[in-house]
Amino acid sequence: MTVACVRTITPVLHIKPQLISLVSKPKTKTQQSCSVFVSSVVMSYDKELAAAKKAAALAARLCQKVQKTLLQSDVQSKNDRSPVTVADYGSQALVSFALQREFPYEPFSLVAEEDSKHLHKDGTQETIDRITRLVNETLASDGSYNVSTLSNEDVLRAIDGGKSEGGSQGRHWVLDPIDGTKGFVRGDQYAIALALLDEGKVVLGVLACPNLPLASIAGDYKHSSENEVGCLFFAQVGAGTYMQSLNGSSPVKVQVSAVENPEEASFFESYEAAHSMHDLSSTIAKKLGVKAPPVRIDSQVKYGALSRGDGAIYLRLPHKGYREKIWDHAAGSIVVTEAGGIVTDAAGNPLDFSKGKYLDMYVGIIVTNQKLMPVLMKAVRESLEEKASSL
Ligand SMILES: Nc1ncnc2c1ncn2[C@@H]1O[C@H](COP(=O)(O)OS(=O)(=O)O)[C@@H](OP(=O)(O)O)[C@H]1O
Ligand SMILES: [Mg+2]
Ligand SMILES: [Mg+2]
Ligand SMILES: [Mg+2]
């Protein structure tokens, strides 16, 4: 009975080899029910993780090329006045194309930040041509997808492959093709952030951080610019977090900081003051007795740096009314949790990625290690209450 049950699920589950022996040799005479057995199977997303790493590294290559020679005409403004560049579109097209190539026989669902709406306006022909050229050059330099040249229509179709709404059922890729576009335009930090949701839970995440030094950025990261840069973080549920160089060195396992004394903890926050209330994090840091000044870095690079212990706390406290999108946190959150950290909203609830494009949550995102979380949460709660009563 057990074997029959496994046959049924094999097409959708990848069972780790060590579990196959468990299947064929039941340990007791008592037959386990099918449902009990299925719930004890450890899902493996090795194939999906390998594809995600490859896609994100490819997109990083395109972004690096554009960042070196960014033209003013490469940057446009979206309806919410946030910037988008040819590299955001090119990165999204590449990841969408690569994932569809890797899994041609599986239903494809991608929730991604960009769409081609702005590229259908008058006067955008040159921009589309440039994006298509960048995508084709990157695919040709990689060589692994054996494609003839993609047309503008192919590229626009790949970008719009990211229009899924996500949700609590089935599998959905989640992509921020460039997280921290403002940082990217400034010549600073940014990340390509790709995650996979399965039944509403993040099961793997990849963060390509082309400008992050391989060595720790604890302290003043601007001064570590002589180090080799370009990190790829990746995590799979239950399997830990690893980092390797974007150039392809062997992965090393990473762990969040073990700091227990808040006075010794350093904290990360958004570079852009419009994205997070710097005054509120400064109040929280004072309450905790944190001595080091805040380290302000763009994008989910903060999650990556935190996962390897460069800092101990990440505080994200957006201004009233802002709604967080899942692509800004899905990859980063699993990279930190698999490295031993905790990610919650400011009320201590875990983040829920199953509600569509937005995180339906209480304001603020708080990230730290297990030891510091209770004292950090207390300081956050008190500071929020003080702020509310002063209004
Ligand atoms: N008003 C406001 N409040 C909060 N967050 C906002 C806001 N506006 C934008 N965003 C989102 O922030 C993403 C960049 O992440 P960070 O805030 O960590 O980066 S930064 O340090 O401020 O550059 C950024 O991601 P990208 O658009 O992918 O760059 C946005 O999704
Ligand atoms: Mg954006
Ligand atoms: Mg983003
Ligand atoms: Mg983005």
UniProtKB/TrEMBL annotation:
Name this polypeptide is given: SAL1 phosphatase-like
Lineage, opening ranks: Eukaryota, Viridiplantae, Streptophyta, Embryophyta, Tracheophyta
